[in-house]
Amino acid sequence: MPKKELIKKHFISSFAVLVSLIGFFGFALFALHQPVFTMKIGAYSTDTFAFLQFKILAISAVVISTLIAYIIYLYLTSDTRTQLLILSATKDLFESKEQLLKIYESAPVPYLTLDNKGDITDLNKAALRFFGVVAEEMLRKNFFSFLVDEDKERAVQLAQHYGLRMPINREEVRMVNKNGDVHWVLLSVFDMGSSVKNSRLGLVTVFDIDDQKKLDQTKTEFVSLASHQLRTPLATFKWYIEMLLSGGLGELPQKPKEYVSKLCSVNEEMIGLVDTLLNVSRLELGKLVVEKKPTDIQEIVVSILTELSSQITKKNITIKKEYGSGFKNFESDPHLLRIAIHNLLTNAVKYTPEAGCVTITLGESLSGKVISVSDTGVGIPKSEQGKIFQKLFRASNVKDVSASQSTGLGLYLIKSIVENLGGKISFESEEGKGSTFTITF
Amino acid sequence: MDTAKNKKILVVDDDENLRTVLVDKLSISGFDAEGAKDGLEGLTKALAMHPDMVLLDGMMPKLTGWEVLEKLRQDVWGKDVNVIMLTAVDQADNVAKAMESGSCQYLVKTNYSLDEVVNKIKKMFAGK
After folding, report:
1. Phi, psi (5° rounding) for residue A96?
2. Is there a contact between A162 and A191 (Cβ–Cβ < 8 Å)?
3. Most A-contacting residue of B25, B110, B114 (CB-CB within 10 A), to test interface
4. When comparing pLDDT for A65 and A212, which is higher?
5. Does B22 contact A228 at a Cβ distance shorter than 8 Å?
C-alpha cells in the first residue's frame, strides 16, 4: 500500500479514536456529574471521609476510561502503524541492497554467483569483460566447464569440492574466455549459504594473475635458454682441457698441468651450477618429469662418492657408510634421486672442515626407507632453520663460502625433487657441530 | 679386437671448437672422423659417405639434429645407422623426440668426458 494512503488511513483511525474518546469522556462526566453533585450537597451533612471516597471513585473512573480509550486507539491503529514501520524498513533495506549491488556490479574484480549445481546464476560487469560475453551466453552454464581442457581433471575435482561445500580458496587455474584466450587466475568460491530451501549461493571471485604468471614464465624460460647456451662453451672447456691433460698432444710440464687441473675443477663447478639452474627452472616450469623404475640407490651413492673423492681426500674427510638392505631395487627415478643425493653429499663435504666426518646411511625407520647424510660441519643457526629450504637462502654462517659454490638453490632443489618423488626431507642441526639431513620414502 | 679400425664417424656440430676437438679425439682413438658444420651438410655428407656412425648435435642451423635424425631414419641405408645424439639439451621431451625417431644413445655434452664418449662409441660398435 502506498505511504500516502497509509498515512491517511492512520489519520482517519486516530481521528475516530479521538472522537470516541471525547464521546466517552462526555458520557463519563455526564454519568458522574449527577452523583457527585448529590454527594457535594450531602457532604455538608455527612462526614468528609465519605466525600473523599466519592472523589477517588470519580478520578478512577476518568483514569480507567482514558486507559480503555488508549487501548482502543492502539488496537484500531496498530495495523497501519506496523505497515508504516515496515515501509520505512523496506526502504532502508532496498537502499542498502542497491548500494551492495552497485559495489558488486562495478567492482573491478570478476564476480559470479552459482547455484548448488555450480551453474552460473549471475555475473558482474568485470566478469562479462573477463569472459568477453553478454550475460545470456554464460547463464545456466556450469562454471567449472570454463577451465581450460588441460585443467579438466582439476575442474572435475573443484566441482566436486563445490558440491561437497569444501572451501575453494585461491586456486591457481587457467580459464578460457570467448575468444579462446587462456588466462591464469586465482579462483575462490565463498559459500553464501542459502535463502530458499534446497538452494544455495556460491560467490566466485576470479583474480586475473596472467601478467604475473607470464613474467614468471619468461624469467624461468630465460634461465633455461641461457643455461643451454652456456653448456656449449662449458663442454668446449671440458673437452679441450681433457685433451691437454690426457697427454695425447704431448705431456704437459708439472706447473702448467696443475694450472690446467684447476681450470678443470672450476669448469666442473660451473657445469654443476648450470645443471642446478636448469633443474630449478624445469621444476618451476612444471617440466620435471618423474620416470620411476627399479633403482640401485647404493650404486648411486657409490658413484657420487667416487666423483667427490678428490675433494674428500683433499680435506681429509672420513666417510662412514652404512648400507641397509632393500636399496638395490628401489622404485624411484634414478636421474632425479641422483641429483638430490649428489647435492646432499656435496653440501656435506663442502661445509665440513678438514679432518671432519660425513656419514651416509641407507636404513629403515617406522615411516619407511631412509637415506640420511650427517656431517660434522658448520651447522645451521637455530634462528635460520625455518628458512633453509627457501629458494636462494644462504645461512649467515656460510657467507665466507664463495657464491659460485653456494647458490642457495641446492636444498630448495633437493626438497622439491624429494617431494616430487613422493618422499619427505627433514633435518637436525646444531651450529658449529654439524647437520643431519634425512630423506624418507 | 680394435673396434676403431676402419670405422668412419661423421661429427655433425655447428660449434667449430667442439667439432674440431671431437674429430681430433676420434682420430687419436683410431677412428676415421670427419666433421659437418650444420644439419643440412651433415645429412648430405651422411647420405653420400655412408659412415658407420653419426654423432649429432641438437640445436643447429638449417636442419636441427632431430630433423636430420628423422630424415636419416626414412632412408634405406640411414634407417639402421648408429646415431648418438650429443647435445646441450636434455629436457625430457627432447629425449623422447630422439627416442621416437629411433636414436640409440642420447648424451648431454657437459656430462661426459671425451674418453667416456669414445667408450660409448666403442661399446655401440661392439653391439652392446
Report:
1. -70, -30
2. no
3. B110
4. A212
5. no
Q: How many residues does chain B have?
A: 128
Q: Does residue B74 lie within any of the structural domains?
A: yes
SS3 A193: coil
A to B CB pairs, distance under 8 Å: 54
Cα–Cα distance measured from residue B72 to residue A374, given in angstroms and rounded to the nearest whole number = 51
Query: pLDDT digits over A136-191, tens only?
Result: 888 889 999 999 988 888 889 899 888 888 888 888 899 988 888 899 999 999 88
Q: Which DSSP string corresponds to A3-22?
A: HHHHHHHHHHHHHHHHHHHH
Which parts of A247-317 are beta strand (E)?
Answer: 293-295
* A436 close to A429: Cβ distance less than 8 angstroms: yes
Q: How far is CA B52 from CA A270, A421, B26, B71, B116, in A?
A: 34, 40, 13, 17, 19
Which helix (H) or strand (E) element contains residue B33?
A: strand B32-36
Top-confidence range, A83-87, A220-224, A435-439: A435-439
Q: What is the DSSP letter of A103?
A: H
Residues 6+ apart with CB under 8 A from A237: A263, A267
We report the CATH number of the domain holding residue B57 as 3.40.50.2300
